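User: Predict the structure for this protein chain, please.
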Amino acid sequence: MNLTTDDLTQGEFWVVHNKHSLDMFQKHIEHLYDTKGYVTLKWKTGKTRTHKQNNALHVYCRQLAEALNDAGYDMKKTLKHETEIPWTTELVKEYLWKTIQEAVIGTDSTSSAAGEDYDKVHQVLSKHLSEKFNIYIPFPTR
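Assistant: Here is the predicted structure, written as structure tokens:
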């Protein structure tokens, strides 16, 4: 069984990618049912983003936050328009990345995104930021 920190808050998950892992998953579910009497399952098909891509997204958001702050572009909050709010990794992810991801692939869940979706979102976000603010951050490869 493979667990990541994202999945610990959502419960356990199992990646089935060959006959052996399918057999092991079936045995695990049977064991859970036999011992607990009730099992709820949720599944996804196709590959989602990798742990490496998730880490790269966070590096990218941090680097972009730093670049926006260094260039003097703060985040204006609706409480007071004159309040300067520096960008953080979380704010970049929430207000820039997820907003564009929702428009591009139809969901703002970064854990649901497929690996190739990250490229699509990065292209749209990078084009906008480079044209409007002259800021470009390549997506990390490590």
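Helices lie at 5-8, 19-36, 51-70, 89-105, 115-133.
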